[in-house]
Amino acid sequence: MHLLIEYSLWFLPLFCIVAVVVAYVLYHKDVKLKDAPLWVRRLLFFLRAAGVFILLLLLLSPFLEIRKNKIEKPTVLVLHDNSASIVLQKDSSFYRTKYLSDYKNFLENLSEDFSVEEYLYSDVLVADSSLNFQGKETNMSSALQELASQYYNQNVGALILASDGIYNSGENPKYAIQNFPSQMPIYTVALGDTVQGRDNLISSVLHNKIAFRETPFIVKISVESHALKGTNSKIIVKEGDTKIFETSLFSNDEQVYKTFDCKLQSKETGEKIYTVEIECHEGEVNVVNNRYSFAVDVLESRQKIVLLYDAVHPDIAAVRRAIESNKNYECSVISLADEEVPDLRSCNCVVLCGLPSSQGKGKKIVDEISKSGIPCLLLYNSTSPVEMLNYMNCGVELMNFRKSYDEVKPKINSDFSLFSVDESTKSLLEVVPPLISPFGTYKISEQSKIFASQMVGNIEVDRPLIAFSTMQNSKIGFVLGEGLWRWRMMDFKQNGSFAAFDSFINKIVAYLALTEKRELFAVNGEQIFYDNKNVNFTAELYDKSFEPMPDQEITMIITNEKGVEYPYSFSSAEKFYTLNAGKYPQGKYHYQASVTLDGKELKKSGNFHVLELLTEYKQICADHELLRSLSESTDGKLFYPNEFDDLLQEIRRNRNIVAVSHTTKNRSLMIDLPFVLILILSIVSIEWFLRKYYATY
Fold it and tell me: Which residues, listed in sequence order, are joined to residue 60 by a DSSP beta bridge?
């Protein structure tokens, strides 16, 4: 405990003198106390002097600093693999019985000397100790990185990692520990069996998520055969219960790896479930990995997008690359310099770059687009005559244009509702370089919806930059600035990819090319889920003016193949609804969502499939060398399940794993402390009592 004063300490002896003088003046010639005992007179003198001194001291606003020392035991992190691969070998009963008992006893003994924090990991990291070996994926690197980040700058003595060394998600764990604290050794407990048994397995299936009706697509099937030398195995592909492809694999060695190309084709649209199977043989350690199911969404045909231009411009390449990143689009780039321009009436959307032009083919084609009602996107550049932009009647009119330009950035309109963009796109649009936009007076039609306004510097001006309109039942979008190619380059500079920019352009094209009638009630969700992921849906509800309607009761009933129903209710967000239905077992499910609007019940129904995630079954041969490498690179050691006692002694012998003493300081104004008030009241009360008792007061 320390007393701290901001003023000079010379005030203290001065206060002592003042306090003694005051006490002396009061009690030196006090005749009323002449018969009182000497000790009483001296005690009264001391109490008065002490009281005056304390009151004078409080005038200096002193602080009282209290220091406390706390001993912190070193923390030992225990990270255990909870994935299914550990119990897929022949010693699975050992890990479900004796091993669990030995592991529990080890943790109890470890807790006597250290602060133990237990974690499990498979696809995610959880603070738990209930091992069940049911994880569907193994992401070791993510778990290690999360722990390193969570316990940064804490007294962590060691990390115990119990695993079979298999990972099938995330990066190599060797790279994940590069940023580990240097004082944190990793002690690994090697689980599983490193002996490869007899096994046929499908190691990977590469396929398109989207295909088109009556259009062949290639599926690459990679298979492995272990300890089955001299055997011949059939490989078949089924659509439902119908066999559509068959080949065979001859194992001419103990270890065989081979990839087959399978050409598939569907005559019907919709979600198709395909199953790849490789023949099982007697004595295989695992037959679950002999089968793999995947889904392909078969569409009627690609949507045709035509990009027309009059003069070469880098924006053309940027938009083209973005459109071509979506396999659902077939993009054609046509120059007006070509002798023949194909019939545009069969395309779903036309992108006009630098068009319309004032004469020749440009004006003729624009007239054809307007008459045919083809959705189009206008990309302005300096070759676009303003008068032709006004002539096209696209929802925006530019007046008082004097061939001057502004550098403008986008300011997203929060009330825009035609479509939504993700957070990565929003973040990109906040840092993109400016576009070159014509300066003038803009007149916007009432039917136009502005996605982004223009910002000159940091000032938002009342001029549209990106907007959409509907003229004669035809959708029109326009970007009134050139330099989109810079946005795409910025995306790569910021994020290392073009994904955000490409997604933004595809959102625009998807809205323009969509010909379906907008509905008051819509439900959106994936058609394929895996059994380790939650089944999620979103819903949209609008009134007759197509304004979002929040806080309505939307229900959904999910029915499995046996007719068992699971009822749910959507949660309302600001402009949409969400539903997290949790995890479902493998199978086909039907759902029906309903809501009552203006006394009328609206319904939406659909189907989805839940597929079994078999990632853990692809590799069940333990990789103890990876664990050994992790330990050696962090000055740790590798142990086996029968060496828990040795591991405990090794941690106890490590002199770097020590307790840490922490000193905490707490400063408080003395005048705010309760005991100071009590002290003053006690001094005054005792003095008053003694004077009352021994004098005639």
Answer: none
